[in-house]
Design brief:
The protein is mainly alpha-helical. It is 61% helix and 4% strand. The chain has helices spanning 19-33, 39-42, 51-63, 90-98, 116-144, 151-258, 271-286, and strands at 12-13, 68-71, 77-81, 262-263. The chain has a two-stranded antiparallel ribbon. The longest helix has 108 residues, at 151-258. The protein is rod-shaped. The two termini are 14 Å apart.
Length: 317
Amino acid sequence: MATPYDTSGAGLLPSGVLQPYGQNILKYGIGQLGTPIDVGAMTAKVAGPTGFQQKSQQRLADMYGMGDIQRDATGMLTGFTGGTGVASYQPYLDQISQQNLLDPSKGYQDFMSPYQKEIIDTTMQEYDVQAGRGRQTISDNAFQAGAFGGGRHGVEMGQYQSESDRNRAALLAGLYGQGYNQALDRQQNQLQNLQGVAGFQTGMESQGIAGLEAVGAQAQALEQQKLNQLAAAGQTAYTLPMNRLTDVANIYGSIAGAMPGSPTQKFSPSPLATGIGGFANMYQTMGGFGGFGGGQSGNVAYNTNPSRPGNNPFGYV
């Protein structure tokens, strides 16, 4: 008797012992694909400014009069409030301008010695006393010579006075010149002092800011490494289940390929089954074995008992 199925072109199924394992692998794989993915856990993040860096930024903003730094929730700078625009060295610049320290024709006046006038007055008074004694000596000598009030006396007195006046002017100029030069030196020293203090203050502040920034950069680098590791861990957590399924599937495939399989059956009805099926359809249409035409108007009637001869025209056993 011909087989009702045609197995030509069929493949091989894995061994029946392994098929449940393959089904479980497929089930777990589909379940893994249906698992929600936490993309945020796998996304690399950027470390924000640390407390040290924020402090250094604020001190830098204070040094340049920018005001208080405003930040968002991540610590990133968004703006400034309360800025004055006055840098930390601005008071020194103002003092340099107010004292005319860059103008030698004016700035020296504030640095003239408070004792200068007193010294000049005292010196000139003493000079005038000495000059008066000189004039008296000339008059005494002329009187003793009997030339007092004469031409010779007058010429000698005029020469003396002229020379005395020149000496007095030179002495006074020298005193003023000495005071002026000293005042210029003090003016220049004040300018250098203010410049030095301004530079020293900003320099020290810059060093403090640089120190805070260096410590903050180290802390930020560590924080960035931590964030990178967390992102890498998230990626590993995502790929690990699928990697394990892949490893198991590879093992399963290797074992399944080494064990004999069972042939798959490609369903294809045989000609005999096709013929029987066609006849059965026709038989049902004609009303069954009770008689063609329902047994009412047919010319031939059959006994429904198949054991009687002549009542099994198809030869069914």
